[in-house]
Amino acid sequence: MFKQTGILALLTCGLYLAANIVYDWLDTPEQPADYRIYYIPLSLMIFALILNGKKHASNKAKPYWWAFMWLAIGQLVKFILFNPFLQMLSDYGFLLLVVIGLIYKLIKNARTSA
Prior knowledge:
Elements: H1 2-26, H2 36-54, H3 62-81, H4 88-113
Helix pairs in contact: 1-2, 2-3, 3-4
């Protein structure tokens, strides 16, 4: 499984690099480029790198990786489906859900290890 996540992480890093260049080419003062050209590959790269890092995490750190993984998924969904600059309130709501989930996982983890 690690090999696939490593390859996915490298591919998404390359995609982000390409998207960064394309965004610079297309973004002009007269005709601004769509922000999704840059942010969707960035979100994919962050998600893939988190998945890659989660594979090496200790059991104590896994709840934190879980939280960051869900924040990355939320970021990806936000940039694909919504206009992120108008969705600030929903960002805070999603963050609250992830923090509640993280606290639950930390408490559950503490009970099983004790």
